[in-house]
Design brief:
Oligomer: single chain
Structural class: alpha+beta
Strand content: 15-25%
Shape: elongated
Length: 150
């Protein structure tokens, strides 16, 4: 586990709120010099605490406003790598979570409309050794990161 203190946690929170925040702004907010904040961010990157920087996208403005989770079931002998490969080949898949128990995987998808969702589910069902699916439509969502940016 990385050695992270309270100031590091504050820097991480500031970066979660706005990944483009400057070292100068963070330095003012945490009470350190710009150089000290840069050293902390560099150390957090080097130790793998910060794994990258990303952008948050409003997919509904791009026409991909429907979000769903699909449970996938496989025969007990299916390797995890096959489960990931099945979903990774589908561009609408945003994330794959392999999980213990039933189902074997939870797939996060984004699509344009319900017809498009049906096409994606049909494609997943035909891929690999999928023995069953169950799809749940997202009506709304909340994440800790979204809360931090308010």
């Amino acid at each position: 586990m990385a050695d992270v203190d309270e100031i590091d946690h504050r820097v991480l929170r500031l970066l979660r709120e706005d990944g483009r925040r400057t070292f100068s702004e963070m330095a003012q907010l945490v009470g350190l010099s710009v150089a000290a904040v840069k050293r902390r961010v560099d150390r957090l990157r080097e130790t793998g605490v910060i794994t990258g920087f990303s952008v948050q996208i409003d997919y509904s403005k791009l026409g991909w406003g429907i979000e769903a989770f699909t449970e996938l079931r496989y025969p007990g002998t299916t390797p995890v790598s096959e489960i990931i490969r099945t979903a990774a080949d589908v561009p609408e898949v945003q994330a794959v979570f392999t999980i213990a128990g039933d189902p074997d995987a939870l797939i996060h998808v984004r699509v344009r409309d319900l017809g498009h969702l049906q096409q994606v589910i049909d494609r997943l069902r035909r891929a690999g050794d999928v023995t069953g699916t169950k799809t749940l439509l997202v009506l709304g969502s909340w994440t800790r990161d979204a809360l931090a940016s308010r």
